Amino acid sequence: CTIKRRADGWYALFSVIVADPKPSAINNPVGIDVGIKTFAALSTGEKIGNPEFLRAAERDLKIAQRKVSRRKKGSHRRRKAVQHLKLEHQRVERSRKNFHFTQAFRLAKRFNPIFVENLNIKNMVKNHHLAKSISDASWGQFLGILSHSAESAGAAVIAVEARGTSQECSGCGVVVQKSLEERVHRCWNCGLVLDRDVNAARNILARGLGRPVGEDAGSNRRSMIREAAAL
For 159-176, what is each residue's pLDDT tens digit? Predict the structure, then answer.
């Protein structure tokens, strides 16, 4: 049992030992690419939108922070303002965590195994242009929750090499260089046109299954192109 103090009071957190879950009977592998524009893209073509909880709450947080700055240090009004600011941050944190748990539970119920990128998030947040958005998405927290949810469901989450998943063509395997601003993958070699993140998710799936990129893709290429026509 661990006792912790939060902005809204004290909590007792209990850890217990439970029996190992039975292996999931589901055999429906999926690749997942986490991002900023879209929170997550699946190799099935589905996308999970990014709620951007921190950005949505920025105005309220700035107002709360301004009130703290204006109050006299050591005063009752300042302590009250600090408490309000803590509650605003807690609301953002809990909204984000609830979103992560909800999405992880849904994915763990549908797919097994689940392949994700082995991301070095600490290095990625050193990019000052993306640090705030990466922290807001909180990929590390989500992947941890996803791993626990899958384990509880008897499923597996497996990390694969992340390098090049956005640049490789999932249809034929050639490298198609793209900047971060380019959101559509257009292959000069095989003609595949696909959402950038979905293309990456399909490469993640292929790496997880250990098959060459583009294998079994020929029969699906036309449908992929039609699918991308709505972009």
Answer: 999 999 999 999 898 999
- How far apart (Å, rounded) are the C-alpha atoms in residues 190 and 175? 11
Query: At a CB cut-off of 8 Å and minimum separation 6, what does 12 contact?
Result: 1, 2, 3
Whether the Cβ atoms of residue 133 and residue 38 lie closer than 8 Å to each other: no
Instruction: Please list the active-site residues.
Output: 33, 117, 197
Average confidence score pLDDT of the chain: 88
Mean pLDDT over residues 36-52, rounded?
A: 94
Q: Residue 151 and residue 162: Cα distance in Å, rounded?
A: 22
Listed residue (141, 37, 129, 51) closest to 92, CA to CA: 51
CB atoms within 10 A of CB 33: 27
